[in-house]
Amino acid sequence: MNNFVPERGFNKENFKGSCLIVPAVSIGNVPQLAVDLLITTLNLKRVGFIEDDSIVSVSGAREDTTEGTGSSDQQLTVIQQRAPAHKGKSHQYARNLVTFFKECHFSRIILLASADAKQRRDVQLTGDSFRILTTDNLSPDVQSRISSLDIKTLETPDVEEDYVKPQAHGGYPRIVGGGMSNYLLSLCKEEKLALIVLILFAMEGGNVTEDNVHDATLTANKLTSLLSEQGIQSDTCFEYAFSVMRSLRQDYLLLGKESTRNWISPRSWNGLFGKPFEQELY
């Protein structure tokens, strides 16, 4: 079963023409953490949820495992997936998502994914840790804007380096640790949907180390830059997002590293690393 249940007063037709951001449950849960930052910082409002039997049920104040949020100008829609798919059901979930994409007529879709940094090849060990893959259905203008960001396309491995042929992934390089990313990409290619996959090489730290929070911040930074380059009209929340990005770039120049001080983390992160040790112990 796949069904979008809107909040009272929200019409599914409002999705038409908006840009959709979706996380793939990937190594380190980096995409989901990045989406948390976006939803909180941009103050995105809940617009509904997706009922899908393919996803593991959760229990809590908000028990909906796949939640939809959106900006006030209805140009940005963000899906947050709070639980993985049942074993053997990830492909079914991907197919259900594609049906949802087609019904809602999004202008383009950005899939956030992370790939196993331990599986990098020599050419991927230096330089930017981000890679990108796209379907062939992006407009020339969007392709040009993406090119201006200088994000490398994920490299196609040599045959002797990868025992799985690219044809098994829709002709795309394998995103190791990227969950359903390859399958969803191949489905969108078949259905002629405009899809961008933003990939970060990450390590498996789960939710118990600060490494993945830093990775999530890097992903949110890059995504904000990508949205800006795609020329999305900005209202108050987007103006704030762009000012955050400008500040982060300045911090990068001054400090030599990305700053996290302008991103607002959700309250659920307060207990992420446990209670600090009492100083009396030392």
Brief description of this entry?
Helices cover 30% and strands 19% of the residues.
Topology, element by element:
Elements: E1 2-6, E2 19-23, H1 30-41, E3 45-52, E4 66-70, E5 76-81, H2 90-104, E6 108-116, E7 130-134, H3 140-147, E8 152-153, H4 181-190, E9 195-202, H5 210-229, H6 236-255
GO biological process, one term: proteasome assembly
Function: Involved in 20S proteasome assembly.
Subunit structure: Component of the 20S proteasome chaperone.
Name its key features:
chaperone; 6 helices; Rossmann fold; alpha/beta; PSMG2_sf; Proteasome_assmbl_chp_2_euk; Proteasome assembly chaperone 2; Proteasome_assmbl_chaperone_2; nine-stranded mixed sheet; 282 residues
Descriptive notes:
The chain is α/β, with parallel strands linked by helices and 282 residues long. It has helices at residues 30-41, 90-104, 140-147, 181-190, 210-229, 236-255; strands spanning 2-6, 19-23, 45-52, 66-70, 76-81, 108-116, 130-134, 152-153, 195-202. The chain has one domain: 3-Layer(aba) Sandwich (Rossmann fold), CATH 3.40.50.10900. It has six helices and nine strands. A nine-stranded mixed sheet has the order 1-3-4-5-2-6-9-7-8, with helices on both faces. Helix 1 (30-41) crosses helix 5 (210-229), helix 2 packs across helix 4 (181-190) and helix 5 crosses helix 6 (236-255). The radius of gyration is 19 Å and the shape is globular. The protein starts with a strand and ends in a 27-residue tail after the last helix. Belongs to the PSMG2 family. Component of the 20S proteasome chaperone. Involved in 20S proteasome assembly.
